[in-house]
Amino acid sequence: MFSNKMEFKETFLRRLEMTCGKSFAESTKRDQYDTLGNMIREYVSLNWIETKEKNRVAKNKQVYYLSIEFLLGRLLRHNLINLKIDQVVSEGLAELGIHLDEIEDVEVDAALGNGGLGRLAACFLDSLASLNLPGHGCGIRYKHGLFEQKIVDGYQVELPEQWLRHGHVWEVRKADLSIEVPFWGKVEVSEENGRMIFRHVNAEMITAVPYDMPVVGYETETVNTLRLWNAEPSPYPINRDIMQYKRETESVSEFLYPDDTHDEGKILRLKQQYFLVSASIRSIVRSYRKQYGSLVDFHQHISIHINDTHPVLAIPELMRILIDEEQLSWDEAWHITLNTISYTNHTTLAEALEKWPIRIFQPLLPRIYMIVNEINERFCKNLWDLYPGDWNRIEEMAIIAHDQIKMAHLALVGSHSVNGVAELHTEILKKREMKNFYEVYPEKFNNKTNGITHRRWLIKSNPKLTDLICDAIGNDWIHKPELLEKLEAFKEDSVFLNQMFLIKKLNKELLAKRIQDQTGIVVDTSSIFDIQVKRLHAYKRQLLNILHIMHLYNRLKEDSSFNMYPRTFIFGAKASPGYYYAKKIIKLINTVAEKVNNDASINGKLKVVFLENYRVSLAEDIFPAADVSEQISTASKEASGTGNMKFMMNGALTVGTLDGANIEIKDRVGDENIFIFGLKAEEVLNYYQHGGYRSMEYYHHDKRIRKVVDQLTNGFFEGVEDEFEAIYDSLLMQNDHYFVLRDFASYIQIQRDVDTAYKNQQKWLQMSLMNIAKSGYFSSDRTIEQYAKEIWSIKPVGQFTTS
Ligand code: CR1
Predict the structure, then answer these.
(1) What topology does CATH give the domain 454-785?
(2) What pTM does this model have?
(3) Which family does it belong to (predicted)?
(4) pLDDT tens sequence across 772-791
């Protein structure tokens, strides 16, 4: 399409005029973005076709990653970088008087996810393609992604997100590959030629229409596919009010995680899950049949991964196809299914472990229910043989019990591999949460510590640091991120360290500008940028952070000689719309910010900023500017975390508990390059086993604690005296379930250590350097290589050239 700047410019101008029907002079930024995006998508289409063809001919085993979330963010710059044409394009545009940054800003984040789980899926897609592995994503094309957050008077307000309002240049609609997904109706059972036949009749059909997006690997010709399904009315509705049917149908792909406090919302969520699974598996089977005919060797050519329990109906759906359509026996079908499916657990939080009431499940998915029932019966029989008479254990482990279907149990029974997302998390699954299952299936359990794509989180988001690294150690680390270790050699190189300092400073200035534009707050770029960005949740303890800020403020007010290095505390966090407590914490952060930022008597030593609408594109500006990374979850609660890795890779130092992947970060950088505090997971879990600890004692014995806790409700924050009662109660009346007060003193101390450490600039930069140098392990390339080898048994597709 173009091979140099001149050709790029010519093609771009021609395309712009052709597609927009305007002259270049008349064109808007959006016209320019659309033109460029379409050009790039077409640019990759040859390789896209060839990748498919190559895999088909070589009969490569393929993996399909089923996920209810894909948090992609923006794709333009990312694709340009992976295609290695970012420079040609940005220079070509510059000659036309266009700044690539401005065009990039037109692109709305594809925010089809909530947080870590969805972003992990997006990082994995990038690594799969970049490692030439045949792996594809399957998800839902929600009309509205994660809500847009506004902060009004300190409160979170949610607005519907509209990423598709102007279309999406990266997708290709493939209506001819649609699939009809059946719901409701009933199953007729008959016998024909000695075989049981199951017919799902009177079903209401929903059409799943695929939208495919190319997933472009870095410096390779591999282009994989992310297939997102859109729900549309079927051409063959049964007798129904047509408008109502249309509305109900389209609602299936309307929102990510519809409110499920009522049955209607629960049904919708379950519908989404089956919709995703059935459409994905049937389209996989359709192309498989075309190539191989029979499905008897399916598991040797296909691997299906379920990201958390949302897509777990993949298990009974595959069984249904193998038994009802392929006419295999139960045992044959089970063998294939088990060997095809693998499962990742992402959390041990009880509220996230999905259970469906039978009264909802059975009528909506009658045939699938029969299969789940059969799986359960056979499983319980096996358990009976293993543990004769141990009813309690069997009841606890059953897939169906007390009129509910436990999705995690179905996943554990129906897949050959179960992995946690960090070493500690996997150990907790084995020793505690899933102990019974580990006893029965020890061979299924394994760990795959999460990772992040260094292409987005370093190369794209921190180009200056990337250049510095390349100048120092060459480019090999881009393909082998563990080679970042070579940076260790620069530990005593003061010129290098000084360059690191200057780059951090520039990145902080960029973020400071953004902060000022967005909030009006002016921050001091020579202060420590101390950042906590992630979903708002009690266990992540944004509360501990803000209470500590209140403590620092109290110290500054009490004692004018209190010596602290100036700090800017930055938060970004969305609270789930129905999560009352989390929303109160957002209000508290904003209330503290208001008070602290407007108090001239503290000489600007403290600033607090809440950045609204935290999302992937904003995150890309935040990580490069961080000095301190807050990873302060209650130990044992954060399965892994991935933000911790993004901060580390950009040279921030972690203040963290021994939780999730923080432990593995510490193991790699060494105790001297990280700030660890607080209870350990063992201690927390032991407390839980023995009914918790007594938060009131900590309140009475530590006057620093007493002071900040009292300030929540004693009029310290004028005009909002009643606002924080729920927080106050959680700490004292409900015994502080997340150990905020228990860890408070230890947190104050470690933050003093941070203060001291920062004052020694040289030392700090060396610590920062060590974090970058050791971050290669946390590239998702390492994670994906482990999945590919140890779970999926897939191999890279050799490089090839386009004809
Ligand atoms: C975990 O809370 C982890 C991500 C990705 C989250 C986080 O610690 O890094 O998954 N879990 O593995 C989750 O979203 C529904 O569960």
Answers:
(1) Rossmann fold (3.40.50)
(2) 0.98
(3) Belongs to the glycogen phosphorylase family.
(4) 999 999 999 999 999 999 99
